[in-house]
Design a protein that fits this description.
The chain has helices at residues 15-22, 38-44, 60-77, 121-134, 160-168, 181-192, 217-226, 249-258, 269-282, 299-326; strands at residues 2-4, 80-83, 87-92, 95-101, 111-112, 118-119, 140-146, 150-157, 200-206, 229-236, 262-266, 287-292, 295-297. The chain is of the alpha/beta class.
Length: 327
């Protein structure tokens, strides 16, 4: 399909006719004598004859070529384009950050799996969070892991397979034995600031209490609220534990409340899966869909054709005049 970007240019098509009728060429008749032996008379008078001011009429070939070239040039100015089939593009409309606790307490093998077996906390989290990542198709996902330090394991990307692979490779203790919950939220906010997407979701999963953050979790949550980050906290572990092994539900609840989010507690792998399903239902993935049709300009082809017609016409006229002279 061919479309014209500037169709109004076709109003110029009758312009040569308007000029021909409204601004005709200047014509003047001058009296003259015709001598059958003019050249001989001029030589006998010692003068050299010169060509007169004669306006030759155009041939049909010239008129046809001029009309065709003018039409092609007007079409070229109208910006013709070959329009292809519609192509749909999907672009992420939300950034999802997953902050996963991998402190020493996540090595506890007391987390009930779906089959009733007691498994390592982090292994259960990997399975559930991995399925959640797979369901984010079309969104950008980032992964932060934290223990005694917080690290960006995967920056924002739509390559979900890589994010899940990095999550599966994560082991307990890689970031140290303690829990810096506030620093993890602070690092997430800093990572969000590098993104131009305004819709932001942060999901923090932890099984312990903050033990040494430079920024308190509540202050970090307040900053997240100012930055427009929707914050959800998930607690796994034992709320009745002691020391660093105790799940600090109060802090996780306060974090979510301060940021205008929600807190969930998961007592087993099934409950944890239900929580992520609920999050998926309450905050469904967001994708911007745009449709465009590729366009290929054709103006240069019309210009080349008009130039070829002009040159061919000149060549034919020159050959015709040369032949007449030789005859």
């Amino acid at each position: 399909m061919i479309e014209f970007g500037h169709p109004f240019v076709f109003l110029m098509l009758p312009l040569p006719l308007l000029i021909y009728f409204l601004l005709p060429a200047h014509r003047q008749r001058v009296a003259a004598f015709r001598f059958p032996f003019f050249r001989e008379l001029a030589r006998s008078a010692g003068r050299e004859p010169h060509a007169g001011a004669i306006v030759f009429s155009r041939t049909r070939l010239q008129n046809g070529a001029a009309i065709l070239v003018w039409g092609l040039l007007v079409c070229a100015l109208a910006n013709p384009e070959r329009v292809g089939e519609p192509i749909t593009q999907e672009k992420a409309a939300r950034d999802v950050m997953l902050a996963i606790d991998i402190s020493g307490s996540m090595d506890q093998r007391d987390f009930p799996a779906a089959d009733g077996q007691r498994v390592q906390r982090l292994d259960a989290v990997k399975r559930v969070v991995g399925d959640f990542i797979d369901a984010r198709d079309g969104e950008r996902v980032a992964l932060i892991v934290f223990g005694a330090k917080a690290f960006v394991q995967a920056p924002f990307t739509e390559d979900l397979a890589t994010v899940r692979a990095l999550l599966d490779q994560t082991e307990v203790g890689m970031a140290g034995p303690h829990t810096v919950l506030g620093d993890a939220i602070g690092l997430a906010i800093k990572t969000f600031q590098t993104s131009e997407i305004e819709d932001r979701l942060l999901i923090v999963l932890s099984d312990g209490a903050d033990t040494g953050s430079r920024m308190t979790p509540i202050n970090a949550a307040a900053i997240a609220a100012r930055e427009g980050v929707e914050l959800i906290t998930i607690g796994v572990g034992d709320p009745k534990g002691t020391g660093e092994q105790r799940l600090d539900e109060r802090t996780l609840t306060d974090i979510a409340t301060t940021a205008g989010g929600r807190y969930y507690f998961a007592g087993d792998e099934t409950a944890l899966g239900d929580i992520y399903d609920r999050i998926d239902a309450q905050t469904p993935k967001k994708i911007d869909v745009s449709v465009y049709r590729p366009k290929k300009p054709l103006a240069h082809i019309l210009i080349a054709i008009s130039a070829a017609i002009g040159l061919a016409t000149l060549g034919l006229l020159y050959a015709f005049k040369t032949r007449r002279r030789l005859a």
